[in-house]
Amino acid sequence: MIRALLDEGFLFVRQRGSHRRYAHPDGRRVTVPFTRSGDTFAAGTLKSIVELQARWSGEDLQRMGLL
Questions:
Q1: From CA 39, how far away is CA 57, in angstroms rounded?
Q2: At 25, which CATH number?
Q3: How far apart are CA 40 and CA 60, in angstroms?
Q4: CB 18 within 8 A of CB 35
Q5: Burial level of 32, CB count in 10 A (0-12/13-18/19+)?
Q6: Contact 60, 24 (CB under 8 A)
Q7: I need a labelling partner for 52 at 20 to 30 A (CA). Which of 17, 23, 31, 60 fits?
């Protein structure tokens, strides 16, 4: 997920505890819970990151190879 955010132009802004904040130049902001590389996200957390925060569509996910 973090690699996809960085590849799509999001930049690491800050970290507070186990949450990392990324921002896109167009104003979108994404908060990602981070404990270890390779950890999985709960379905609701993943949906929030993809649909509500990053505002990625199904086409975006296919283009990035995530679907």
A1: 23
A2: 3.30.920.30
A3: 20
A4: yes
A5: buried
A6: no
A7: 17
pLDDT tens, N- to C-terminus, the chain (67 residues): 899 999 999 999 999 999 999 999 999 999 999 877 777 888 999 999 999 999 999 999 999 998 8
What contacts 24+ positions apart, CB below 8 Å, involve 31-35? 32/1, 32/2, 32/5, 34/2
pTM: 0.86
> In whole angstroms, what is the distance from residue 36 CA to residue 29 CA?
21
Which residue type is seen at 12?
A: F
Q: Which domain holds residue 10?
A: 2-63
How many domains does the chain contain in total? 1
Q: Among the residues of 1-67, which ranges form H helices?
A: 2-7, 43-47, 58-63
Residues 6+ positions from 41 with CB-CB distance below 8 Å: 1, 33, 49
